Amino acid sequence: MRTTRVFIIHPQRLVCVALRDLMEKFGDLMVVGVSCDFAGAQAALADGTIDVFLMADRLEDCTGVSALKRIRQDNLHTKVVFYRLGGMSPLFDYMAARYGAGAVLSPTCGYSELVAAVRGVYEGTLEPMQSRMVGRARKLSVREMDVLAGILEGKTLGETAEELGISDKTVSTYKNRLFHKLGVKSAVELVGMYNCGNGVGSLFQ
């Protein structure tokens, strides 16, 4: 039986420990580390010792989507399973799918569902999120997704422009486009949509 190496990230240390104890009851799951923030997983990520990240959608030092983007930059084969800390958010699910998450679990999921998701994502037996999302969401361009992620991370337009290697004006244009597509008028509304699923009617048809 092949062992799946799991790294757990949750902003509450006690939850990390509880999830580790749960995983270690199964012979095919080995927890190689736990952390309350993404920074604590960097060393293990660099060593290539992680098969699956099991992480909350909101971490101490960044958003879950931001962490997923960093994982995807250098570790294309590492799988990610998210679990929501609050209510369901179609916008979060959409972004997670676009950036390659394997699954997003609801806050009410049971332990058996959580373990099954980790196994299924690693073994490739779980239906990819991308295929489930086709036709459900109004598609954002790659650049609009990048600007959206920057807004959710609290970056200024200038910081996002520098990171993407484009002008502030171009970032502003992408921002206006995605605001229109998502039906929001401000970054505050956008964050509310991401965190709580508020006002998702214009995104999901």
Describe the structure.
- This protein has a five-stranded parallel β-sheet with strand order 2-1-3-4-5, sandwiched between helices.
- It is 48% helix and 13% strand.
- It has ten helices and five strands, in the order E-H-E-H-E-H-E-H-E-H-H-H-H-H-H.
- By secondary structure, the protein is α/β, with parallel strands linked by helices.
- The chain starts with a strand and ends in a 9-residue tail after the last helix.
- It is elongated and about 55 Å long.
- Strand 3 (52-56), helix 3 and strand 4 form a beta-alpha-beta unit.
Structure classification: alpha/beta
Residue-averaged pLDDT, rounded?
85
Q: Which range best describes the helical content: under 10%, 10-25%, 25-40%, 40-55%, 55-70% or over 70%? A: 40-55%
What is the number of helical segments per DSSP (H or I, 4+ residues)?
10
Quick rundown:
It contains ten helices and five strands, in the order βαβαβαβαβαααααα. The protein has helices at 13-23, 42-47, 64-74, 90-98, 111-123, 129-133, 142-152, 157-164, 168-182, 187-196; strands spanning 4-9, 29-35, 52-56, 79-83, 103-105.
